[in-house]
Amino acid sequence: MPAVRTQSLDALTQGVLTGEVRSIARAITLVESRDPARLELLERLFPHTGRAFKLGITGAPGAGKSTLTYQLIPRLKARGYRVGVLAVDPTSPFSGGAILGDRIRFDDALEGVYIRSLASRGSIGGLSRGVPPAVRVLEAAGFDLVLIETVGAGQLQVDVRFVADTVVLALVPEAGDIVQAMKAGIIEIADIYVINKADREGATRMRLDLRNALELGGKPKGWNPPIILTEAIHGKGVDELVEFIEEHQQYQQQSGGWEARRLQQVEWELQSLIHDALEQHARATTRQLFSAETLQAVLHGAENPFPTLRAWSLYGSPHAVGGT
Amino acid sequence: MPAVRTQSLDALTQGVLTGEVRSIARAITLVESRDPARLELLERLFPHTGRAFKLGITGAPGAGKSTLTYQLIPRLKARGYRVGVLAVDPTSPFSGGAILGDRIRFDDALEGVYIRSLASRGSIGGLSRGVPPAVRVLEAAGFDLVLIETVGAGQLQVDVRFVADTVVLALVPEAGDIVQAMKAGIIEIADIYVINKADREGATRMRLDLRNALELGGKPKGWNPPIILTEAIHGKGVDELVEFIEEHQQYQQQSGGWEARRLQQVEWELQSLIHDALEQHARATTRQLFSAETLQAVLHGAENPFPTLRAWSLYGSPHAVGGT
User: Fold this and answer.
1) What is the pLDDT of residues A164-173, one digit of tens each?
2) How far apart (Å, rounded) are the C-alpha atoms in residues B11 and A33?
3) Measured between CA atoms, how close is B146 to chain A, in angstroms?
């Protein structure tokens, strides 16, 4: 996307604030990009942001995250929320398998719901960095509940904590699923556990195992994460899930955990914007310090690259110059 | 680890060059760290590095990577290689499930083999950045074949291409395994495919499906990746695998692909060292630009952080000052 002019930024801001779908789509595309204008847009939207409740749904592919999302939406709407969905899961039907998709679904359940899939720039930073700015766009457009569906694969899962106020982890009664979740480091970070497809054998057993696994980490102080059995495909257990989501919100507000968590979110958001800039700088620096010829020479042992790197890290790196 | 003195760096260098196990262990710990002395050590070791053949073994947990590794080792030793193993797979028995482990195994098959597990700093950059410098330590210690076992999860798999000369992908005859590998983006990057546990139903069928999947991407130019059926647990098919590994090496050397690939490895290695320094800088910059009080104010909407970010990206970031 070419640099966006001030005039069109004003128009874009207006479009977002009035909830115009095309503007929302363009704004998210802009804030996902590395166009410097994205910071200008975010600056304009900022006064209208920061108020949505962010609900993360994570879990391995096949755990039924999208079905849960689909079932949650009408129930959340019935409670008065304006719901936006950000799908960072490339396998989600909400993203249709495509990298990007914008649509308002004209399904009864999904009417008025803005659904957007985000590219998961997975390699660096795990969760798509586009999430926090996309949340700001949706907030400015008047959505007050943003549901973030993330694929549950390793690091991707863990980062959801830095963008969501409440994290729901969906599991299925399958041998090894708890072990996988523990390995991925997700087991400790969920606020609510769902054992979906609970009609399958082993669901009750899994709840027991999960409770034991959770208690291995010591007595929970404060919030004791519930484990809910659901059959999302038939809507079973989803009302209970909604109740626990609201309970968790209330708990956090009363305990003060809300504030600490949101501070962490803000910090992560700003840090990831800074990281982005520096990442581009890492590539540029490599090319600057090491030309194609130098790389050849390094490869063949004719040039030792470490003196250059040491000099850079002592004198040339932003560390050395005292930062900014 | 505290900063290492020049004198002890000399001793450490000597210890590595003479192949002393404790020195190798200490050196790898140092180069894995962020201690600035790591660059000094690498500078000293550099003239003795760059010559090992790096063999990557990747695949999903349960695909039998460690069994393959265990079977490959004596065969590679019989061909005259001194073998070192770097396990980036936290589920590998070679790493014993621990984050770090150093040992020379006194198993007949593994005698003289140096085995080391590396922390997979998964969040940023996928594959452990410790791999290229750890390879240099092993090279300096006289190992001329480094076997890199990496867990096959998403991005982690893909990065193995940037550290290994030959990538072996281990699959098992299971519905969906090919699809998973395609989703993870690994399917195109392997040089040799192994369908392990080939006594299971569906192995021959899987070979056919995999061949078809590979040809979807168009006719291979040059190297046509073989698909080998193995039963690693009984050593079946492993001799054939070794032959194809050597054939791939020869092919690359003759075709010139070797040079291009190794250049990419060198570039990735240097870039990741630079990235590391800048990543620390991102954290420091965030703290510098946004104090705890400012973050509070941002959270409550009392301060708009984007003007500061814009100013930083215009004037303060290393981009703006023209790099180094």
Assistant:
1) 999 999 998 8
2) 49
3) 17
Question: What's the average model confidence in pLDDT over A306-315?
Answer: 82
Chains A, B: CB contacts within 8 A come to 192
E strand intervals along chain B:
53-59, 83-87, 101-104, 114-117, 145-151, 166-171, 192-195, 227-229
- Please check whether residue A138 is in contact with residue A84, taking contact to mean a CB–CB distance below 8 angstroms: yes
Q: Which of B49, B189, B261, B266 to mutate to test the interface with A (most CBs of A within 10 A)?
A: B266
Q: Is B123 on the interface with A (CB under 8 A)?
A: yes
Six token digits for residue A46: 């900022």
Q: Is the dihedral of CA A236, A242, A243, A244 positive or negative?
A: positive
Interface test with A, best of B124, B281, B319 (most A CBs within 10 A): B281
Per CATH, is A48-265 categorized as 1.10.3720.10?
Answer: no
Pick the CATH number of B48-260 from 3.40.50.720, 3.10.25.10, 3.40.50.300, 3.40.50.261: 3.40.50.300
**Among B39, B277, B290, beta carbon nearest to A270:** B290
Closest CA to A81 of A49, A113, A59, A104: A113
Put simply, whether B153 touches A (Cβ < 8 Å) is yes
B290/A contact by beta carbon, under 8 A: yes
What confidence category does residue A52 fall into, taking pLDDT thresholds of 50, 70 and 90? very high
Overall average pLDDT of the A275-293 stretch: 81
3-state class (DSSP) for residue B171? strand
In 10 A of CB A189, how many CB atoms?
20
Domain with CATH 3.40.50.300 in chain A: 48-265
Q: Do A284 and B312 touch (CB under 8 A)?
A: no
**CA of A202 to nearest chain B CA: how many angstroms apart?**
22
Domain ranges in chain B with CATH number 3.40.50.300: 48-260
- Note whether A317 contacts B281, CB cutoff 8 Å: yes
Element containing residue A45 per DSSP (H, E)? helix A37-45
**B244 band by pLDDT with thresholds 50, 70 and 90:** very high
B270/A286 Cβ within 8 A? yes
pTM: predicted TM-score of the whole model, two decimal places: 0.66
State mean pLDDT over B272-282: 77
| Per-residue pLDDT tens digits for A246-280 | 999 999 999 988 888 999 899 888 888 887 777 77
